[in-house]
């Protein structure tokens, strides 16, 4: 066990993200609530204030935080939970051998139980409902909502500078997010705050079309002890680069213990697909799945603190044959497990039949539904077909059943969709699911580029995010080919962060463009360090720059390797601005074209008088 | 010189692209015209015919072709040119020391003249016009047009299978491309066939919104001898991965000789920005540029065979001050050179003033205009501003002047544009430039991801390609940071090929989806080799697969590392299909939902009788 622990200690990446400082901003409505963010300081020459950015990285990037993987993170939300007086501690369900797949001879090498998992689980007092939606609908603003409001307000203080522009396709993005706005969005089901009462380490975040577009990263798949360390590290690594939630898709053996290590150390919501573990408990034979085994698995994971469950309750018996006409059939694992169960028993899905009972469990722990699209298309050919939309309508029906019990819901979406068919997915989802947050995988906009599917899907993700999707599930370069390693996880997360940001810009999110403008201004003023630090991946930006101009001096040089030392197109722009200024124009002023002739004469004189030597020479900038 | 040559021999990548065969298809209208394509053979088990794909790689991927960089490629079009009887050979302009920047002491190390450049240049007989547009408008179908028609018809033979779907935003994409259709598109200026009479090695291709979306790759920037080899190799490397045209942006010394080596070995159209070389000839001092120096440079490059010239004639004196209000001013090198010249002399641009004289030269060699957008935005903040659109309207005015002399034109576009402002660019271009082909750089949809700008721009490129842009200028991961190396060139080209293909799919191009479906079917049937071979980058696809499952056996295994050997969601899909078949349904048949109950009963029985053991186990496919 010491080995395992030390491995874990070693495996996790800590320390500040290059060029930024961790800060904790007191919520305006409640200073006791301190919201984690990052600030990027700019060079003094800029005369600009630090740029504040959304931060998902948790205490791992805080030099003042003591990280002990074996102890887990601090229970940020614990006091809030008790203060509400509606929860009870109770004796947990006993961990059974089958929870870790150890019914037979253990070939796993063993994973140690999380050493300090002594805390008793919480749940709502008998018959109670502790979901954020339930509070919201009763008009209660929770600390979680206050935290979210402050967190989403990034940069909006500087909005005076901006006239908003964008096409939001009917979204209702406010100039400024108030706790009351958050409450209202959660109450009407248009946003969720995944927050299992047994995951108090989680920093509250919202998923909804009127908030910043979020990104999910998947980890898991490991089944041997030595992988627990790497899975925890992958979780920490993915949130370092911006993953807003993480799904633990671990299967095989040691599922229970692996998940405990991940949740106890995660500052972001954790999602799972419970049917995976239920399947393992019945020896991997789908037909042998029962409601009791599944229900027991939900309780097990609820007590550990899983924040949202993917439930494929929309894969109904009558829909299975619709997959027969497809080019690529059923590509969702959960979907095919349920399809197989339905086929074998010729019965309606037990998930569909027992949906209200599942909801009872969800509300007692405040777990959010992620209604799975088990019949999503697995190829361009199958996009937007009957099977897909038949399931979507059923997910809409189930959404209303969950809402009837004040349980939070989001809806999973495709998949593989050509660009011209993406919008229909968003429109049908909004219409059939009452604006419940949409959570899509890509979609991939072509099937011909395996090895580059983070890009084929990033194109679709940016667009569907613009249309209104609330969270984008990342795709890595290894999609369809193999298991993502640490580098793939980073590339996947950064690709999806830029896609989500492009969507926020296009929607006209008031906080989004501040960072683009700060980076562009830094670029124009040759503040190379600021350019690197303001980017989504400062390490790679500086690495690429240094491959051509490694000298430290180049970091302050008024040129780049594209244009070389003797020429730069940025220089003349600055001169044009200087001339404009000399014409008593503000530096951001505007010389109307019709006045230009006169202006040009004087500018020409100024230019010749100044006799300033422009850098001229080789190279190219932006291709011409 | 022997060194240089052997370097060149070594540097160039030859041999077939993995899994495909070079073929030459006789044009249906003229069997003497043999059109280069590639065919990908599928595993016999598929029972599928080979998949034919568009091929830009030239003789370098043809095992039967003898490649000698010092001799250059065969003059494919030479006979067609003479057959028209409207050209004359003449004594070329003498190469001057300043053409290679050798007026001062030569610090370059020297680049050898292309050894076999003995061929005399051709031009139209006095007062003549040999542009493809001129022929087209006189109703003449040239061999170039026949070649293009055959080349664009990829896969359309199999169209019987398809009902076309897509949103083309007013494009007129035919079910089948005829030479007459090509002639008509060129005649009306909606497509161009760049084909300088002195680049007979070029395989004809068309750029237009009713043809497949094309991709341009930029090379150049080198100024020392040793780089000539790497620049020629970069050209060959970029067309291997699918670049439809290549721009040589070489600057500094040895520009003339470097360009000669590239053109003589290029089977794709070569574009340049002549102002770069003109600037070098006047010692890099923009104010010293004159019409005479520029004109002499045009003749020099026309005689070498440059197929299209980027001319920044839209950067007019009155527009320069409009850049003063910008966040990032002028980011186009050519644009800032002209802006500086205008400022210094307080005169209207000599490119604008002498435009008709430039056109006289273009028509004598059949060089196409690529009217440069010197005032394109260099940041999200500056997108769609007055400076940009003022220039665009002028480019529209110049387009009509060029067309008045039957000279081919395309229009360059931005740049940096958030998603919600992209469509306006396309609409304004179509409206002001009379549907002349649009040729855009990206656009980048956010500024915050340096190091990933091939992706931030790939997102914008796919969308503007869908809206109607005819050619996409690639962006590499090094954009804004450094000079692209060989790997960057490949990533940039493949990223843009997938973006262009996503656009073709969304436009409903009849030939596009054949390849997606073939790859998806191979994926569904576990034909791993076919999956790799059908992808844009077979080498990377197989490499990624083998990182998890290197064994040769895994290439035929009915599972992948995502799902592992004991489970696969594809299997059940195939079972569902089998059951459907047993119900006397065609394998692509459809069981209506209302009949499903009955169908299910029988299927349930079939399933239990068959007692077939499904693979079940660990892992995940497409995230759930």
TrEMBL record, chains A, B:
NCBIfam families: PRK09284.1 (NF006763), PRK13352.1 (NF009895), thiC (TIGR00190). The lineage of its organism: Bacteria, Pseudomonadati, Pseudomonadota, Alphaproteobacteria, Sphingomonadales. Pathway: Cofactor biosynthesis; thiamine diphosphate biosynthesis. It comes from Novosphingobium decolorationis. Belongs to the ThiC family. Its cofactor is [4Fe-4S] cluster. Residues 89-115 are annotated as: Disordered. Residues 17-88 form the ThiC-associated domain. The keyword Iron-sulfur applies. [4Fe-4S] cluster binds at residues 560, 563, 568. Its EC number is 4.1.99.17. Keywords: 4Fe-4S, Iron, Iron-sulfur, Lyase, Metal-binding, S-adenosyl-L-methionine, Thiamine biosynthesis, Zinc. It catalyses: 5-amino-1-(5-phospho-beta-D-ribosyl)imidazole + S-adenosyl-L-methionine = 4-amino-2-methyl-5-(phosphooxymethyl)pyrimidine + CO + 5'-deoxyadenosine + formate + L-methionine + 3 H(+). Homodimer. It comes from the Bacteria. One of its GO terms (molecular function) is phosphomethylpyrimidine synthase activity. This is Phosphomethylpyrimidine synthase. The gene is thiC. Residues 89-105 have a biased composition (Basic and acidic residues).
């Amino acid at each position: 066990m010491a080995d395992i622990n030390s491995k874990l200690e070693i495996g996790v990446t800590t320390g500040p993200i290059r060029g930024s400082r961790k800060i904790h901003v007191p919520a305006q409505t409640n200073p006791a609530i301190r919201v984690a963010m990052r600030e990027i300081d700019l060079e003094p020459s800029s005369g600009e204030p630090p740029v504040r950015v959304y931060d998902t990285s948790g205490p791992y990037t805080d030099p003042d935080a003591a990280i002990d993987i074996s102890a887990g993170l601090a229970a940020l939300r614990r006091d809030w939970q008790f203060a509400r007086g509606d929860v009870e501690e109770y004796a947990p369900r006993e961990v059974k051998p089958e929870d870790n797949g150890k019914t037979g001879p253990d070939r796993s090498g063993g994973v140690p139980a999380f050493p300090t998992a002594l805390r008793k689980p919480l749940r709502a007092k008998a018959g109670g409902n502790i979901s954020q939606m339930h509070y919201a609908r009763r008009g209660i603003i929770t600390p979680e909502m206050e935290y979210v409001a402050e967190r989403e307000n990034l940069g909006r203080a500087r909005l005076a500078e901006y006239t908003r522009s964008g096409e939001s396709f009917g979204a209702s993005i406010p100039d400024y997010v108030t706790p009351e706005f958050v409450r209202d969005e959660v109450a009407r089901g248009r946003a969720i705050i995944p927050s299992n009462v047994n995951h108090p380490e989680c920093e509250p975040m919202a998923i909804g079309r009127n908030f910043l577009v979020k990104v999910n990263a998947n980890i898991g798949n490991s089944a041997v002890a030595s992988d627990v360390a790497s899975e925890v590290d992958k979780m920490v690594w993915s949130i370092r680069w911006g993953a807003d939630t993480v799904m633990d898709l671990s299967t095989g053996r040691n599922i229970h213990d692996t998940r405990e290590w991940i949740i106890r150390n995660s500052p972001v919501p954790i999602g799972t697909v419970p049917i995976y573990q239920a399947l393992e408990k019945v020896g991997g034979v789908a037909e042998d799945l029962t409601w009791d085994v599944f229900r027991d698995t939900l309780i097990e994971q609820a007590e550990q603190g899983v924040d949202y469950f993917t439930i494929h309750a929309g894969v109904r018996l009558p829909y299975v044959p619709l997959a027969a006409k497809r080019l690529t059939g059923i590509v969702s694992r959960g979907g095919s497990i349920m399809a197989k169960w339905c086929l074998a028993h010729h019965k309606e899905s037990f998930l569909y039949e027992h949906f209200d009972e599942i909801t009872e469990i969800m509300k007692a722990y405040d777990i959010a539904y992620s209604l799975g699209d088990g019949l999503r298309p697995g190829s361009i050919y199958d996009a937007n077909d009957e099977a897909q939309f038949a399931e979507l309508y059923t997910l809409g029906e189930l959404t209303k059943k969950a809402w009837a019990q004040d349980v939070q819901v989001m809806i999973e979406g495709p998949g593989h969709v050509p660009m011209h068919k993406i919008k229909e997915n968003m429109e049908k989802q909004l219409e059939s699911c009452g604006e419940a947050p949409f959570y899509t995988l890509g979609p991939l906009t072509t099937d011909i580029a395996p090895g580059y599917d983070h890009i084929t899907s990033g194109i679709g993700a940016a667009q569907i995010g613009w249309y209104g999707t609330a969270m984008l599930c990342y795709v890595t370069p290894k999609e369809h080919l193999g298991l993502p390693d640490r580098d793939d996880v980073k590339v996947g997360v950064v690709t999806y962060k830029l896609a989500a940001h492009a969507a926020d810009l296009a929607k006209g999110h008031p906080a989004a463009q501040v960072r683009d403008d700060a980076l562009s201004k830094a670029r124009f003023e040759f503040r190379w360090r600021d350019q690197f630090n303001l980017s989504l991946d400062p390490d790679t930006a500086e690495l690429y720059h240094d491959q051509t101009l490694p000298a430290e001096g180049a970091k302050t040089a008024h040129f780049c390797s594209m244009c070389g030392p003797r020429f730069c197109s940025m220089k003349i722009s600055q001169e044009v601005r200087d001339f404009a200024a000399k014409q008593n124009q503000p530096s951001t002023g505007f010389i109307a074209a019709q006045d230009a002739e006169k202006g040009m004469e004087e500018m020409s004189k100024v230019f010749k008088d100044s006799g300033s030597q422009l850098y001229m020479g080789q190279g190219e900038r932006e291709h011409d």
